[in-house]
Amino acid sequence: MSEATFTITELSREFDVTPRTIRYYEDQGLLFPQRSGLQRVYAKRDRTRLKLALRGKRLGLSLAEIKGMIAMYDTAQDEAGQLVEFLAALAQRRAALERQREDIEALLTEISGFEQQCRELLEVEAPRSASKKAKRSRRAA
Length: 141
Prior knowledge:
The protein is mainly alpha-helical and 141 residues long. The chain has 5 helices and 3 strands; from the N terminus they run βααββααα.
C-alpha cells in the first residue's frame, strides 16, 4: 500500500495558503517534496511539517523557532521533550504578548487623555469662534 501524497494545489486549498507560501517553506528547508516530472509531490510527512509551520507562524514564532520545533518532531523518541520545548516557546510568546498588551493599554489611556483635552479646548473655543463670527457679520452690515 502506497503512502498518501498531495499536490501543492491540494495543500494550498487545505491550509488556505498560496502555493508561493508552500514554496517559501520548501526554500527554507521545512518541506522536501518529491518530483513527478515538473510537479511537486508532497508526502504525509511534508503535510504534517507544513501544518506545524503554519501553527508556529500563527502563534508568532520565528522561523528559527519553527525549524527547531519541526526538528524535534523529526527526531523525538518520545513526546515529553518536544512538549517541554513547545511549552517553553509558548511561555515566551505569551510573555511577549502580555507586554504588548500592557503597552497598547497604556497608549489607549494616553490617547483617551488627549481626546478629552481636545474636546475641552473645543468647548472653550466654540463660544469664542461664534462671538467672532457675529462681530464680523455686524461689521459687514
